[in-house]
Amino acid sequence: MSSSRRPGLLTDLGAVVLTLVLVGIAGLLGKWQYDAWQASREAEARDLTGITPVPLTDVMGNDDPFPAPDLGRPVEVAGEWLDGGFWVADREQGGRSGYWAVEPLQVGDAAVLVVRGWAPEPEADLLGVAGEAELTGWLQAPDGSLVTDDDPDDEVFPEIRVADAVQRVDVDLYSAYLIAQEPADGLEAAELEALPTPSRATGIRNLLYAVEWWVFGGFAAFIWWRWRRDATAPEISPSAG
Fold first, then answer.
1. Cβ neighbourhood burial of 10 (10 Å; 0-12, 13-18, 19+)
2. Contacts of 15 (CB under 8 A, 6+ apart)
């Protein structure tokens, strides 16, 4: 024979309340950690392009590596144009493929490469400028895909690489380049190549903590379910002989 065994009402209600409390706490803590993860990603991927410009020297020195958190930041520079300009191929502008006109601008003891604008073709009279200049540009990191230059003797490069450009000037180069906000005469404004994107590892600890809390909440609900199932399972009595 079998008989049903049920826990007392207070015991049953207490177990339900305790489970709901534990699941609720785990859910809230998991949500808090998830929000922290999202906030970390948003902070890293913030768009700096519209903020007030600052001097380039306030952001980095000429011997410093590229400051990744400042990608896209507008900076101000003042200096003198140097010889050694070149074109960069395969640059998109409004869905069209063309070329960037790049010139080195000496700032103090070093120079920074400046994208002065975009053109559909690399016309010689659009490259080459002299004199002093003051401009504002968006900070960008040099390219690094190591695309091969089919003709290293011409004025057209496949990428903006400091290692290539430094051979064309007599001073050190910053490990960054600028895209001028105002294009030079005869050129169109160049489009930004890169804006910050969050790393996959950004705030990963917060995300893992969120998952752990949600797993804990699910485990608490499972324990309650197992207890309720076992507590209400029929008891099998020994058969009378």
1. exposed
2. 7, 224, 227, 228
- List beta partners, residue 235: 3
Residue 94: phi, psi to the nearest 5? 60, 35
What is the predicted pLDDT for the residue at 136?
Answer: 94
Query: What pTM was computed for the model?
Result: 0.62
Between β-strands 86-93 and 156-157, what pairing exists: parallel, antiparallel or unpaired?
parallel
Structure-token pair, residue 96 = 């069209």
Q: What tokens does 151 get?
A: 């003709």
Q: Which of 204, 180, 205, 208 is closest to 192 using CA atoms?
A: 180
Instruction: Give 59-99 as a DSSP string.
Output: H--TTSPP-GGGTT-EEEEEEEE-S--EEEEEEEETTEEEE
Instruction: Say if residue 121's pLDDT is above 70.
Output: yes
Average pLDDT estimate for 80-92: 91
